[in-house]
Amino acid sequence: MSASTPGGPQIAGHDSRADMTLGNVLAEHRRSRPHELAAVDGPVRLTYSELAARVDLLASALLQAGVGPGGRVLWLGQNSYRLLELILAVGEVGATVCPVNWRQSPAEIEFVFDDLRPAVVVWEAATFADVVERLASRCDTAFLEATDRSGDSSCESAIAAAPPLERTQADGALTQVIMYTAAHDGRPNGAMLTQQGLVASSFMHAAVNSLFEERPVFLAASPMFHIATLLGVLSTFLVGGTNVFLPRVTAKEACDLIESERCTWAYLTGPSISEVAEFATRPGRDLSCLRVPEAYVKTDSRWAGLGRTATSPWAHATGAFGQTETTGVISYAALAHGARGAAGRPSPWFQVRVVDPDGAEVDNGQVGEITARGIAIGPGYWNRPDLNQRRLRDGWWHTGDLGRREPDGSLSFVGPMTRMIKSGKENIYPIEVERCLLDHPAITDAAAVGVPDPVWEQSVLAVVVTADGVELTAEEVIAHCRARIASYKKPRHVRFVTELPRIGTRLDRDELDKQHGGGGYPGVGR
Amino acid sequence: MSASTPGGPQIAGHDSRADMTLGNVLAEHRRSRPHELAAVDGPVRLTYSELAARVDLLASALLQAGVGPGGRVLWLGQNSYRLLELILAVGEVGATVCPVNWRQSPAEIEFVFDDLRPAVVVWEAATFADVVERLASRCDTAFLEATDRSGDSSCESAIAAAPPLERTQADGALTQVIMYTAAHDGRPNGAMLTQQGLVASSFMHAAVNSLFEERPVFLAASPMFHIATLLGVLSTFLVGGTNVFLPRVTAKEACDLIESERCTWAYLTGPSISEVAEFATRPGRDLSCLRVPEAYVKTDSRWAGLGRTATSPWAHATGAFGQTETTGVISYAALAHGARGAAGRPSPWFQVRVVDPDGAEVDNGQVGEITARGIAIGPGYWNRPDLNQRRLRDGWWHTGDLGRREPDGSLSFVGPMTRMIKSGKENIYPIEVERCLLDHPAITDAAAVGVPDPVWEQSVLAVVVTADGVELTAEEVIAHCRARIASYKKPRHVRFVTELPRIGTRLDRDELDKQHGGGGYPGVGR
To answer: B95: which residues sit within 8 A by CB, 6+ positions away?
Structure first.
């Protein structure tokens, strides 16, 4: 303790920053809400006191199984209270858990397994017996079987046999969760999310969803291997609410649980909304406990039949920009009150810069790569040192997404950054040209390709699909663009085709280059 | 960048925890909301872009004046946009500002000056000319005069002459604000509040006041040398709202500003409420912009005439426990939804333990000292190494306040810890006995004093004042207590007096001991 330095964390031997962990939140819940319900999952009902005791034992069991600081655990299962327990337990020992995307093929799951090299796999026998058999034959990882929502499993035996936990020092900067993201560069990459990042993001998530207003009960029905559902669970946990786990969405079970557990919120997407709405509106049902965001009701009438209208900031404006690697949302429309950019403004956890390829901030109105920094930004991808070096340049996380600051300073998301075209020192992002081309009423699909140019290094080739029976000339296409975007961005060449190559819904840009002579891109740092 | 360690902040040369500073919030506001109004103060109106530019210059001017990392600045002024600028500017250079309690006597202000030893004093000529004259004669501190809300001052000249700022590395663990608190132990002590603590507390303050819901406009009328008003300003700043500064509360000006600037919230206390309400309800006034907490209206009808009813968590339940040293509120009734303890439950930033004098957690229902840890806890008091060592034992901040966990885990605040009586190994806090005594209908005032006891080390002496004309015996008083509190806590002796010695409203316990033979207290770690 020194009186001469006003700064510095001066609690002897203790940096209070280390305290920003979900484990410390759990320690306080154990004291503050011992009898409140933390988790519901089929027949399992755990109070915060019971959850905390189980997490200690599970952490001890993981240590016994060789998962120490820096160790990895793979969760091969659907939504379950066990995944929440695992996240908290690995946090206690400074280790990491990866909830696998169980919709992937066995080969894809094997890729994750080989990439992660987990010391322990916790798996649900009902769904993953075949996968586990293949994995078990080729390594010495420990496999703890966790029969769904039952007390009879090797996972429960390990918990029962665990000695008292010897805790390691909490540290918010440690990675706690690894989530594999879409394979934009040909293979999935495991985004590392830190203890403090999960706390910070959950806090903001709680604030924009008004979870401090009434004790939340969350229906975790959408897959928890997606960051949105995970944050739903963790923000509910953060404020001491109840998480209700459903392995996967089925409309009747979702409705039954919302009704019986009085769920106050849930994430439902796509087809499940219709199905749930159909069940919800049957006579005798009472789902008035569920808060339904106003914005959802406005854009999708199927929501109208579900519950009552929510009044949280998020409920009014659900526009946002973020990614798994930033532990979720960076920028919220809900924080931008009438601003021009649909992605709104950053939460107080983030700073954002829109930059050119040299890392210089571009002027408002110009498109560039969105970069961010702040306490919720993770340390990059597991086992990808080269990629991390490119993505974490100059202390800023390079999102690989294009954006623009509007004149009022708010953000617009433009699209994923793909090949950047460089023409006469100017940067041209294909997506900008493509958006302009698609504004033409006669054009139904379009791609912009960078083709080698002896004078300009590269120039833009527009590859377009026109509506049936419409005649369009190259000059007309070029004139359309010249009137709408900077002249250097307009196509110099146009090709008419009947179809563009795609992988799923995404343009297959490798194939486009191959078909149309694209090449010479200066690289965009992905 | 290492692929073999999953944890650790791996942005090269950058610990993202350092980012939790108000300065980083300002940097992002400058980008995200350049044209939005940050501050209003008399004729001064500053956008976030203008505020950020001025803060950079002020920071540079402070550096020039010798305020580097660890340096101190004293603010001798009432509420002003200049104090917000100073807080942000010292943050930029790793220094600290102390907003003086201007209600103190010149001698008390001199004590703070001598204790703080500031390199620079920024002062308002209108109010502090006499004080500054006395201070200036005895040291070589630089004095920057900041004539109220005017551009013509030595402070403005220093800003105008400042070279571009060379920033130091942001670090959330540094002390940014020092606030002198009440002189419980005979002299005021300067509580050190860190950059990260101010961000964390402001974030929670924003959440419980629903500041993410609509852009807030805060009337800073109550003194900013109190943590509640300061957090009102900083939480409004955090979410990019407007702060409207009024040097001190006058009812007409407050009403005029609420109306003209469309203020959405304010702190008003005591007599100012009546005065403001009187002005607010005059014909032609429209203060419908102001959100008035429901809980205030219920307990004090004068609020009813002001504005519309607020719906934030805080508006429904304003019970709380906290102190300046913990950067404000630790525990909120608003987070406890029907719990028994009036102080509710801790915010996610805090862990709380109620402990005995040996630091062991006491059982629920037992009274002990409230201790806390977490990211918003500061490093203690400026220039008080011995006191800090006592208050920060075992990595926990000892609040010097007594509390109790109810059976449901929620917290009750019992009262300030004063002398603890030790009787036969049992701890007895005078305030518990005093509360019991005051429950007796015939007792109008009471104190519990520890008197030496040959067998029990100490025993309890009750010193009581009875209502006029009521006869009461010692036996009756003891029987009353025996029926209500643990037997070992009951008084063994009773003395009847006509008056108890007080300092202001507080019991003068030194004088009580002197008058009634108290002594032999084992010490309570303050």
So the answer is: B62, B67, B68, B69, B70, B71, B72, B73
- The pLDDT tens digits of the residues spanning A310-364 come to 889 988 888 899 999 999 999 999 998 888 899 999 999 999 999 998 899 999 9
Low-confidence ranges of chain A (pLDDT < 70): 1-18, 148-151, 182-186, 270-271, 522-526
Residue B321: list chain A partners with CB under 8 A. Answer: none
Inter-chain residue contact A395 with B178, CB threshold 8 Å: no
Minimum Cα–Cα distance from A22: chain B residue: B348
For A208, the closest of B212, B240, B334 (CB atoms) is B212
Residues of B in contact with A178 (CB under 8 A): 6
Q: Does A12 touch chain B (CB under 8 A)?
A: yes
pTM over 0.95: no
User: Rounded to an integer, what distance in angstroms lies between the CA atom of residue B177 and that of residue B173?
Assistant: 12
Question: What is the interface pTM, i.e. ipTM, of the complex?
Answer: 0.87
The pair of structure tokens assigned to A471 is 């005649």
Q: For testing the chain B interface, which of A2, A4, A5, A11 should be mutated: the one with the most B CBs within 10 Å? A: A11
Number of residues written out for chain A: 526
Picking from A34, A210, A375, the nearest residue to B16 by CB comes out as A375
Q: E strands along B392-524, which residues? A: 397-405, 411-416, 421-423, 426-428, 443-453, 457-466, 493-496, 502-503, 506-507
Distance of CA B30 to the CA centre of its chain: 29
Residues in Cβ contact with A138 at an 8 Å cutoff, skipping those fewer than 6 apart = none
Asked if A409 lies within 8 A of B33 by C-beta distance, the reply is: yes
Q: Using 50, 70 and 90 to split pLDDT, how confident is the model at B473?
A: very high
